[in-house]
Design goal:
mainly beta; nine-stranded antiparallel beta sheet; seven-stranded antiparallel beta sheet; 26 strands; about 0% helix
Length: about 250
């Protein structure tokens, strides 16, 4: 055993096959612990599971890996190695090979991906809970199995299965267009344009049905079973018979 230095300030000590070193800003205890102030400079090393080299700080492997690179300007968590909706596996953000800063998080077909211009969100289930939800955009599009809402082509809403794509055709459902660019007209359809429907082509209203009723309980126009019935306070036509009060002028 040996001891060199001052007992309580700076020294080098050796006993029990262990070395202890102490100075004003550095202490290596006999158990192997190091306490220090100042700067550590090294080209590479390993600290607590982290691997350090001249450009990268790494830990773990595969889906449990974490990488931070100053040279590549990237932070990566997981096995995803490239930007792109087809490569999302974990978290990746930083500068891509095209010098564009990007961000992605997720796994497989569920992800959030920013490609430097647009944000892409994909998931089997997305839940939004808010007291106020506002969307303020120049172009809007909502596409679902039986519903389509778009701000393009003058703005239109289409619903059905299969949904109609205009006021003509055989698809049954609902369609409304705010302003058709080709003829500058508002258009509307409920039903099946080739069958029973109510539509407006921008100029005229069309109604086609095997049965209909227009009016109130006292005055109305009704059609069913191939017959037409018209009724008002002074006039009634039903089944070919006419009942009326007042004068007939011809």
């Amino acid at each position: 055993s040996f001891f060199v230095g001052k007992t309580t300030t700076q020294f080098i000590s050796g006993s029990g096959q262990k070395i202890e070193i102490s100075s004003s800003n550095f202490h290596l205890s006999s158990s192997g612990d190091v306490n220090m102030t100042g700067t550590i400079t090294a080209n590479a090393g390993n600290i607590g599971g982290w691997t350090i080299d001249d450009s990268s700080l790494k830990a773990g492997a595969g889906n449990s890996s974490v990488t931070m690179s100053g040279t590549d300007q990237l932070i990566r968590m997981g096995s995803g190695s490239q930007f792109g909706a087809d490569n999302v596996s974990g978290i990746l953000f930083g500068q891509d090979t095209d010098d564009v800063y990007k961000f992605q998080i997720g796994e497989g077909t569920s992800y959030i991906y920013f490609d430097g211009t647009a944000v892409n969100i994909r998931s089997e289930d997305i839940n939004v809970t808010a007291s106020v939800f506002s969307v303020d955009v120049d172009v809007f599009k909502l596409s679902a199995n039986n519903l389509f809402i778009s701000s393009s082509h003058g703005g239109f809403i289409s619903a059905g299965n299969p949904r109609p794509t205009g006021i003509t055709g055989t698809n049954k459902g609902f369609y409304v267009q705010g302003n058709n660019p080709s003829d500058n007209k508002t258009k509307f359809l409920v039903g099946n344009a080739a069958g029973g429907h109510l539509s407006f082509d921008g100029d005229a209203v069309y109604m086609s049905s095997s049965a209909f009723y227009l009016g109130s309980g006292t005055q109305f126009i009704s059609g069913s079973n191939g017959n037409l019935e018209i009724s008002s306070s002074t006039f009634h036509v039903s089944g070919g018979s006419t009942i009326m009060s007042g004068k007939v002028t011809a």
